[in-house]
DNA sequence: CTGCTGACCGAGA
DNA sequence: ATCTCGGCCAGCA
């Protein structure tokens, strides 16, 4: 598990796996934690390969608390279902109390 | 090798 | 307050 072996994507997966239950974070927060606050796009792009991994991508939303990535999930409301299943209220792809459920790895970790 | 895309974010008008 | 635009880096054809 050498850092060199761990690509940017792998780091994203690691952080995503560290997201506590019933908690959500943003791409920018992960990117910032990785040292690339401007590369938040890659974080989302990295999630492209999260399919099939133990990465709770449904806990990762955009800065607005919007489930932008839900479009990439299997179903249409699967992401919302998962979040609601964890106690996170979601309304129309939008996380309720997102500010309260927000989990910043750069500060809380 | 070059170019395009991508689940975003921040700043400017 | 809302809308628009550029930029960042990595993977793939």
TrEMBL record:
So where does this one cross the membrane?
Answer: none
Q: Which residues form the Methylated-DNA-[protein]-cysteine S-methyltransferase DNA binding domain?
A: 8-88
Q: Which residues form a coiled coil?
A: none
UniProt keyword list? DNA damage
Q: Gene3D superfamilies this protein is in?
A: Winged helix-like DNA-binding domain superfamily/Winged helix DNA-binding domain (1.10.10.10)
Q: Does the keyword DNA damage apply?
A: yes
In terms of SUPFAM superfamilies, this protein maps to: Methylated DNA-protein cysteine methyltransferase, C-terminal domain
Q: What is this protein called?
A: Methylated-DNA-protein-cysteine methyltransferase-like protein
Q: Which organism is it from?
A: Meridianimaribacter flavus
Task: Give the source lineage, highest ranks first.
Answer: Bacteria, Pseudomonadati, Bacteroidota, Flavobacteriia, Flavobacteriales
């Amino acid at each position: 598990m050498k850092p060199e072996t761990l690509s940017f994507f792998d780091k994203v997966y690691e952080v995503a796996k560290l997201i506590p239950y019933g908690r959500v974070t943003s791409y920018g927060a992960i990117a910032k934690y990785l040292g690339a606050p401007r590369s938040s796009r890659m974080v989302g792009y990295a999630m492209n390969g999260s399919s099939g991994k133990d990465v709770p991508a449904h806990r990762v939303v955009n800065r607005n608390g919007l489930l932008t990535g839900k479009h990439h999930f299997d179903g249409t409301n699967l992401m919302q279902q998962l979040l609601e299943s964890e106690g996170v209220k979601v309304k129309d792809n939008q996380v309720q109390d997102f500010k309260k459920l927000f989990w910043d790895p750069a500060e809380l970790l």
